[in-house]
Model the fold of this input.
Amino acid sequence: GDSVTQTEGQVALSEEDFLTIHCNYSASGYPALFWYVQYPGEGPQFLFRASRDKEKGSSRGFEATYNKEATSFHLQKASVQESDSAVYYCALNNTGANTGKLTFGHGTILRVHP
Amino acid sequence: NAGVIQTPRHKVTGKGQEATLWCEPISGHSAVFWYRQTIVQGLEFLTYFRNQAPIDDSGMPKERFSAQMPNQSHSTLKIQSTQPQDSAVYLCASSLGGGQDTQYFGPGTRLLVL
Done:
């Protein structure tokens, strides 16, 4: 079945550091790819998406580029802030499976120290 | 514009009792999804409605779990004879038309079964 693998565990950075969270996927069809962010006590919040090869999604300084050959959608941000501390989820939606469900990675905890 | 509304936010039940969770999707969205979030399993898809009709319930446990969407403004997830392993955050999401449309999540209902 479909699956998403992302950077495991926690990423600890200082403010203004560069962020990369790796995301790789496995899917039979041509999935749409998503990044969501989750703060304590809240549901996952949509960050951005990309639907085709080489498309770049971006929001709030975060960005990722759909790479079909490498099956990747890595999240990056040039200069993180303490307020970016949260859990980040990469997800895919594979309509080739004739369903609208999202398949999520296990999440990556980002901690940004002042 | 109100987001997805979920009630209650927290629910504590005794083992063997019934729990009913409510979701009100974003107005105008025709697709509703239910997910379950635990530390061990992460975010798991449960079921999906489009235009109130059940489309995919492949993630629903075969026993004790049921979901309905009696009208376009709310969906319910019912768990009969709750067990401690049902303790989780139950998340509802809605999207404009299903398929690969972006899903927007509610804050979740935290269910604790004692």
Q: What stands out?
A: Residues 17 and 79 of chain A are 5 Å apart (CA to CA). The interface with chain B takes residues 31-32, 34, 36, 41-46, 49, 51, 89, 91, 93, 95, 99-107 of chain A (CB under 8 Å). The mean pLDDT of chain A is 95. Chain A is about 0% helix and 50% strand.
